[in-house]
Every structure is written in structure tokens, then in C-alpha cells.
Amino acid sequence: MPEGTILPSCRLCGGPGTVWFERPRQVLRCQSCTALYASTDQRVQEFTEAYYRGGVYSDYLADEPAIRRTAAARLRRLERRVAGRTLLDVGCATGFFLEAARARAWTATGVDVSRYATDVARGRGCDALTGSIDQAVPSGRRFAVVTLWDTIEHLDDVKATLAVARELLLPGGILALSTGDAGSVFARATGAHWRLLQDPTHRVFFTEQALRRLLERVGFRVAEVSRRGKWVSTAMILHHSSIGAAAHLARWCVRARVNPMVYVNLGDVMTVISVPA
């Protein structure tokens, strides 16, 4: 890094950052809140179809069985905590979680900035809104649960999004989210090769400490933190593998419809349940 270069401050708390690594892109660690954050925005593919098919995902639509199986498990946990059955899924993608919720008698609405994804979701009969949470959700709507599954790491302004989510909750409502744990053993062991750093649209990476502090600043109390795995397709595993010809094998799995799912838990993803303080 050239001498005298001014490093950008933390996206979460505004604290000073130090370089954690330079390649494949520069990522900084905040000296105040311990979060990691990308030094620049890289709006690769803008969540078009290319992001979901052949980009970060081999074929997101082919992953539906695995995604819906994980969704069902998440919904069962939510149902033990709330009596209401209204839900807003922020970052709903193509609506697989919304469909799983609807099958369990939830009234589920989704919102996503990807027009491609929300078009697919609406084509499947989902109530999916295109845009950001503060712009797309109609005034006056309130929900028993707001979810952000693997979403906050993509956001431009995490704090603002969480504040809006809090305002959208009904009394007794809960916020449920999942995101990578940059302080986990697996993340620290793999360093710059940590899998969640490889998606160029990921902007911020939390430790549990950093996430707790952020949630408290926007008016939440953390009720539960767990590190649960999820079901993933064989094609998805191959797509992210460094094994030679893995990408070709992933595409073959999708085309041949030979794409069994596997339960994976590397301990590097946090599921956090919070309630308004």
C-alpha cells in the first residue's frame, strides 16, 4: 500500500481500520468494533440473473430443495417464539423461503433489490416487492417476524436497514437473521481464503461481538445466538470447490438432475434472534 494512503473508516461504527489482507481485494478490520469490511464497493453483476446462474451460484433455482429444507427448519424455530403468522423476508431472492412459510400457514411478504429474483418469485405466486426495505414496503405494514437470511453482509447501510426492520415489527415481534461469523475458528483458520469473503458483493463481515453491539445500538436485545448448518446442493459445493473441473461437474449435476443435498455446518455462520429492547 502506498505510504500516506488514508484507509476508509468502519462501515458499522465509523472507527479506524487496519488492513487485514490485500488480495483478492482489500479487507480491513475495525479497531473499535472488530468487524471486517471491504474497503471499496464492488457492485459485481448487481444481482442479475448472472449472479444466480453461473455467478456466485451454479444455478440458484436448482438449489430449491436444499433451500426449502433449511427454510422449514428455520420456520419451526420461529413458530416456537411468536404467536403471529405474518412475516417479512428481507433479501427474499426467488421466494423459496416465502413458499416454505406459506406452506406452513404464514402470510409472507418478501423484498429484494434484485428485479430478476423478485420477478421469478412473483411468477411463482409469491408476494415479492422490488427495492430496499425502506422504499418498497408500504407504509403501515407491520409483521410478527422480520428475517434477513444471509443478507446483511450485502447491505450498503446495515444500521439503517435494521432500524427500519425494528419499526416494522408488531408488539412482541422478533428479528431473525443469519450471517457469517468472522471470529469463528474456521474463518480465522482460512484467513483470506474464508469462503464468505469470496463473494464480491459481500461488504461487511461480523464477529459476534460486533453484531451484538450493532443490534443494541439500533434498539434490539439479542435473545439467542446459535451456529446452525444448512442444507446445500452438491452442485453448490462443487461450484465453490477448487478441485479441477468442479465447475463442469456442477453444471452436469444441474443438467442431469443428479444434485443431492448435504447438511453442512462449518460453525462459521451465526443465526441471531433479537427482540426490540
Keywords:
10 helices; 277 residues; alpha/beta; 26% strand; 13 strands; seven-stranded mixed β-sheet; four-stranded antiparallel β-sheet; Rossmann fold
Characterize the structure shown.
With about 280 residues, the chain is of the alpha/beta class. It has one domain: Vaccinia Virus protein VP39 (Rossmann fold). Strands 6-5-4-7-8-13-10 form a seven-stranded mixed beta sheet, with helices on both faces. Strands 1-2-3-9 form a four-stranded antiparallel beta sheet, with no helix packed on it. A two-stranded antiparallel ribbon has the order 11-12. Helix 2 packs across helix 3. The longest helix is centred in the N-terminal third of the chain and has 16 residues. It is globular. The model has no long low-confidence stretch (mean pLDDT about 90).
Shape field: globular
Taking all Cα atoms into account, the compactness measure Rg is 18 Å
**CATH H-level homologous superfamily name:** Vaccinia Virus protein VP39
Order of helices and strands: EEEHHEHEHEHEHEHEHEEHHEE
Low-confidence stretches: none
- The tally of structural domains comes to 1
Structural class by secondary-structure content: alpha/beta
The second-level CATH architecture is 3-Layer(aba) Sandwich
**What is the name of the CATH topology?**
Rossmann fold
- Would you state the CATH class? Alpha Beta
Name the strands of the widest sheet in spatial order. 6-5-4-7-8-13-10
Average predicted confidence as pLDDT:
91
Number of strand elements: 13
Instruction: Give the amount of beta strand, in percent.
Output: 25-35%
Major pleated sheet: 7 strands, mixed
